[in-house]
Design a protein that fits this description.
Length: 169
Amino acid sequence: MSNNANPARVVADADVLAADLLAGGAAREALDHVRRHSWLDLLASDQLLDDATAVIGSLADEHLATDWRALAARERVPVSHPDGDHPGLATAYRGEAAHLLTFDPDLASASTNLSVQPYAALSIRPPAAFARLFDAESLYESLHDDSYPGPDRSRSSTPGGTDLDSESP
């Protein structure tokens, strides 16, 4: 596995995915940055979606969790990793993502960030930090030869959007 992460690839841990759907706030704000731009990818493994589905099912209901899982599976960039690995961290590593968003303070700690650097160029941070620091224009212009065109898609039909009930699985 390469130590060259793609700055246009983002992973949201299960807690962030569930909070995006159920609570909004910083999780929604951070993931809306990703959803508004077709050149950004939200990566997720099956195990990561399973974990988020379980959290949603325990906090809301199984029907909502099942509907969310079907939509999230269509919207994500799939990544495979060995069973038993931490789903968020393994998805970021195997998918060569530059960003892992989590509410887990141990995972987002400075010591964890430093310990993964020899293996992956990965920034692990809470969604509020990502939302505050993310600059779509400068990232786009560092990756493309043209000027930043602005957001190019709506977030409303995605997992944290407002029309989940109107989506058919």
